[in-house]
Amino acid sequence: RSPPSFRACAARCRMALTFVAPANGVATGHLRSTAGAPIGQRSGPTALQKVWSNSALLAFGAIGAVTVATRRRVTRQADEKGEEFIDYDPEDWVKRVKMIEGQRALFDVTIPKPLGLVPANFPNRPGVGVAKINPDGNTDQLNKRVIIDGEEGMWVLEGDEVVAVNGTNVEGKSLDEVGPLVKNSEGDSVTLSLCRHYMAGPVKVVFLPSGKVATMKRGIEISKAAEVGVEDVSFSCKEGWCKACWHTDPMFGICYRACSAYSRKKPPPKNPRTIPMTWNNVVPLWLLNWRESLKWAKFKKAQREEEKKERLAQRAAQA
Q1: DSSP state of 229
Q2: How many angstroms separate the CA atoms of 65 and 296, rounded?
Q3: Whole-angstrom Cα distance, residue 231 to residue 212?
Q4: Nearest by Cα to 288 from 258, 311, 263
Q5: Could you tell me which of 311, 202, 251 has the C-alpha nearest to residue 88?
Q6: What pTM was computed for the model?
């Protein structure tokens, strides 16, 4: 049985920063020396060009443009039973940032103090980046509001480079210079301008309906999220066909298999099992579990039928 299709749904003290994907595969920021002072942010978008990677543009062409509200990426709609669903629009995310050369994205975030993240110097070049986002800190809360709840603006990813603090350019500066600007800034919040290499670095993965979030390395198996307690991945078969572990990306309709079950009697399904190597990480990767994906497909089908009825009614009225 093939997976469901989704038509129309189809990036201080001197420290060295190293982003290491540990054996469990979930990417985290690790510091080589002393811990740094927390930094953090809240959302305030700088959205300009609609730019996507070449491969993603091809995916848009193959699957079809997503028809959802243009103002918000997370648009909640209710079915006839009153149950809310989210519309997923990758194009809206790239409108929230300014794409520049070198496959980089610029955006601003503003969040109350304490900022709830750990900054550090990059190990192999000048500049300060986000080494770690503290769980339940203000930056983590920002990410949840933007990614899960649909608040306007952008979110923060481990590896983002701090290029300005409250409008003061700090690109290429060390933590000795950037830290005091954050610590001594006036007011209860700080606005950071961040730069992200959107075709490199980790991907923010959101499991639904649980709403759990994991920062995962490209190419790592999705099942690794379960090994660190981020998301339970269960299955009830020995060859990968029970579909209990299948997760669907609602933006492009790709169904991933989160288990490694294999049987000599029956080959496993060819569903991808790893985080995509080619992914614009300005956009989070949402993964719906199998039951949620079936509900979502049913909702989108009913939505398409309703839109078709409205178009026919409009044509009849104009005739």
Answers
A1: T
A2: 17
A3: 7
A4: 258
A5: 251
A6: 0.69
Q: What is the DSSP letter of 152?
A: S
Average pLDDT, the chain: 74
Task: Write down the pLDDT at residue 230.
Answer: 61
CA 190 distance to own-chain centroid: 23
Spatial separation of the C-alpha atoms in residues 287 and 88, rounded to whole Å: 11
Q: For residue 47, what are the CA distances in angstroms to 171, 172, 235?
A: 20, 23, 41
- Would you state the structure tokens that stand for residue 11, as one six-digit string? 């990036």
Coil, strand or helix: which one is 37? coil
Among 60-74, 81-95, 177-191, whose mean pLDDT is lowest? 60-74
Strands 189-197 and 212-216: unpaired
Alpha-carbon distance of 18 to 116, in angstroms, equals: 19
DSSP 142: H
240 near 272, Cβ under 8 Å? no
Rounded CA separation 194/143 (Å): 14
Instruction: Judge contact between 174 and 168, C-beta under 8 A.
Output: no
What is the greatest pairwise CA distance in the chain? Answer: 74
Tokens of 270: 């060819």
